[in-house]
Amino acid sequence: MTKNKTGLGVLLLLAWSLLFSGRAEKETFAVFVKTFSGEYTQLNVPGIAYDYREYFNAIPGPAQLDAQQAFFEKKKTALNNFSRAQLKPVAQVTFDHLQYEIGFNLERIALEKSWVAAGRKLPDDGLFALENRKAWYAYFIKKFTSLDYTPEEIMSFGLQEVKRVQGEINRIRMETGFTDSLAFVKHLVGEKFIITDKKKLQEIFARTDSAIRKNLAAFTGDANPPAVFPMEWPDAGANTPPGMYTNHEENPYGKDVFLYNFFGGHYNSRAIEWLYMHEAIPGHHLQWSLRNDEQKDPLQDLFLYPGNFEGWACYVEYYGKSLGVFRDPYSELGKWEWDLVRSARLVIETGIHYYGWTREQALAYWKKNIPAQDDIAEREVTRVTNWPAQAISYKIGADCLAKIKEETKKKYGNAFSEARFNRAYLSFGMRPLDVVKNNFENMYAAGK
Length: 448
Description:
By secondary structure, the chain is mostly helical. It is built from 19 helices and five strands.
């Protein structure tokens, strides 16, 4: 998890505007973006909420929604006065970003107006009871993934991924000599995989960091992220996630930190390498440290796109072996165990919010498809019930990157560069994945 920053210094805004200097139209576009950012902030549009009830309760009344609609319609008209084709590639990305946000907010306002007019009825157990649940759930999907997916597509993808990941787990089961799946599950829940010595755990995290850094150049080029410090998550409980990254500007520690859940004085050794890759390097820590180094425009401090950063952090987990980890089959297994959780969440939350599953149905699906993880079933079902579409941002985002990569490989063939691809993606910063997709070819071509 990460937090958004709220402002840019005058020098950064000046430096960014110089990207568009040389022609009056481009200078005007830079001013337009700066003005949009300032005026948008004054609208006080709520950011991402951690519970759908919080989101709905924050929806303002008709007068404020009318004011928001007028703002976005005005900006839509003004944006159309610019010729995208005459802007430099970096400005074209910003143009598309503006177009995306204007269109998305007009969709949001239409839904919110309809809900307010219908009496602000707030469902208790997810979005299924909403009068226009398909449109609402599609909206939440887009809000968290920044891509257009239907609920049916999410369900289909989830079912497909559950089957695929179960196949990977069975492959490792056979490789480790277990022909009996029940015996394998019993083996996995044994004490062998539990670390109770926090010093030993810290040492393993340090070795993991070192191994990844030795192989990072081939993955992300000259990226050299600053040190990140693993530490026990203070006050973690049974329902606390396994880990979280927080940078030095957002925490009280004064340094970039990877927090791990050591609740109960124990930690599963199979959750070391994949989680460190996700939260630290080359996941969140690397992406956010590069984001601070790259030239940004004001829009990137206004909006958060979980599909962008959770998608990246999920995507990198598939490259553990090339990054010097997953040398032990059980370390790789840990990655697939959590991938199965993520895949099942696609199915469960779509079932709850779109198909009307009860909590009992959701838990039954979990227990049927996810072995040896019953202890977190209640937590995860509660999470996807209260926070529609957030949990799908991981897999959908990673899948988006994989598809872009496949297209890029087809075009460049043997000239394709892994490091160049990854740096091209990271150079976008905090952008909607829809915008990244449409501009990736130019960014890759301009890379090194």
